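Task: complex structure prediction.
Instruction: return structure tokens for all chains below.
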Amino acid sequence: MLKLTFAAGLLSAGMALAQIPTLTVYAPDYFTSEWGPGPSIEAKFEETCDCNLVFSAGELLPRLVLEGNNTSADVVIGLNTDITKKARELKIFAPHNQDNGLLTLPVDWDDEIFLPFDWSYASFVFDTTKTKPPSSFEELANLPDDIKIVIQDPRSSISGLALVLWVKKIYGKDAGEYWQKLAPKILTVTKGWSEAYGLFTDGEAGGVLSFTTSPAYHIVVEEDNTKQAAIFKEGHYPFFELVAKVKSSKNDALSSMFMKFILSDGFQDLIPMTNWSYPSSQAMEKWPSVFSDLPMPSSTVYFSENEASEITKQAIEEWRNALSQ
Amino acid sequence: MAQRTFSIVVNCILLFAVFGPLVVLIFHADQNFTFTTADRAALKFTLLQATLSSLLSVLLAWPLALALSRRQFRGRRLLIVALSVPFILPVIVAILGLLSVFGNSGLLNSLLSFFGFPVFSIYGLSGVLLAHIFFNIPLATRAFLLALERRPKELDRLADGLNLNFLIRFWILDWPIVRLIAPQIFSLIFVLCLTSFAVVLTLGGGPKATTLELAIYQSFRFELDFGRASFLAFIQLSIAALTCVLSIIIFGLPLNFNNGLDRPIHKRYLRLASFFWDFGIIILMGLFLTIPLISVLLKGVQNFYLLEITIWTPIFNSITLALLSALISTILAMGFMNKWGEVIGTLSIAVSPLIIGAGLFLMIRNFINPFEVTFWVILTVNSIMGLPFAIRIMRPASDEIISNFRRLSIANGMTPFAWFYWVYLPRLKSALTYSMGLVAALSMGDLGVIVLFGGANFETLPLVIYQLMSAYRIDQAMASAVILVLISIGIFLIFDRIGKTRNA
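Output:
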């Protein structure tokens, strides 16, 4: 009899578990790993949502295209601004229905589909034991001979693409010329950010293309103050990471709740120390001091989505030609 | 008869597994057959670096294999096992290992500048070749070594007795082995280099060193142009197919040695000059191949304290995957012990994992959601990827056993089972166990399709290393990479030990 009650108890517990709705969120690998923001975000959201948040890691857009309308994703997190046009044209995302006015970004944000959850500026991070970080693109190209930098390929890396657009925005039709001038400083070009950053921390290069927020990791985790982001007087290119609701989601109420959660302090508080970037809707006063103490670019240079998509092909071609010589 | 049926069935499965995803993807997407100037430049560079890399690997591996086959010394087996490690290292770890010796602030440049010489830069075509040689010499060396060890020992004794000079000896004894093995290994390394991309870009120093694989990756991930991605993948596949067919069918002639008495080695009397030559080669190549590894090991070991308890799950997952795919690959390879099997088997590594993953997804999505069976998808792909290695390692041995013993066994009235168990298997053993060790290690180190098929529910060791790298934790990544290497060496040694026991 006791056994039976126990079994019945288990059964109802199981049913209760089954009744809890599941929110499926597609995210990149770095996001869901135990060293990324995923686990703490999941725990925080589940405190209040009475639901089960499940991250599904892997490639985002290719997977969504393959799955089409049969996707099990309710929300997609970790998209980047420079490829949003392609993502928008898929017509699989629904409006986020959040107040863009809550955002604290260096640019005006009026996108109804994609909502930024964090951001940072592209920047070159230097090892200050080797050189003082340059203060402009010109100084970068004129660093001493033995100081080299590593960048990422704009054809395979989103941060590499941000750099190419950044240079294009500053130099316009002279971008190719600048790349030729910078070429001798570039030790090599890597497939992705992690390879480049690995070469840098291994001491192979004096500087690396990364973000203004990268030094925070070294300060907080390694207590190392020798990594510094160069602040250029020409202004910096911002890099936003986005979240979007999937139109075919059957959990609309829950995914709306998640979108709302993203702009709340519960989510935003977790971003700096897990994703090593700035929160997207929090005044600087609320940031951890290590982040608000980081040197901040004085101005922002940025291509709108349409401008970026028009110019990307040409900018990459100029980059490739200049560096192939 | 049963063997033939098995072979046909396995060939069909593989054709389906290799071409299926590609064809499905081509027809799924809008066809886009544009081939830009940039693509042409990439194609040219791809062919150049792949040809040179594979040629150099084979040319350098031969003297090393010859030297290793002639000499017995302490640590020989460990050296041979250690030589297989570069192959399985995660790309960035291998690159950091190489750079610790050849990089800007590497060992060599530090020595040069210490003695007042100008420093050199590894980046460029030379860097690409250096890396590819580093990865692939061990593979070629092992293949040559296996063939040399099977050569009837009586031939060496006879050549010693006749006091044959170096050239004649090479022509009569060595050339037939080179002619048989070199084209097989050349085509395998060629295909591996053909699809290489992260290494080529990083050590090539810039966009001049672009391979077709980068364009495939770009079309697939950024432009979401699956039509163009699969079109480029098809071009890559055709080049691989052509190379395999040419090298294996035209140049890979069978051995024409008569049987020996199948007896173990006898004591050799070798000249002093050849002693210095052999050990010169062993030491030089040994240093080239092991110093980067030692540097990786040192970096990793001092960061062991950073490792977290959670690493056990991915370790367990990776070992399970490795052992299962080694088993499946090696069994399947037995159905491919012919020229065509070798060609088809090789093509499976000529298609980018992203394309295979995407195509597989489209093929099975109507029956099952592939994201719910990640383990099985990865296992399948890894087993197929291991095939070309397993085939190349085992086929020469298998051919020889069949030509030397098959008729005798039939004349003796042996049943197929008895033939297989008493004659075939024991003589195939060293090749078979090496094949299993190699495929297991490969599977251990492969990131492969998991990047498409996700890792929230199923993590492997290479994926964890990749995640650590993305989270700034390079030291922890290096420590995990060393764990990966140690486990792989362990698996290798175990299979090696099994291969050395005699079972009759």
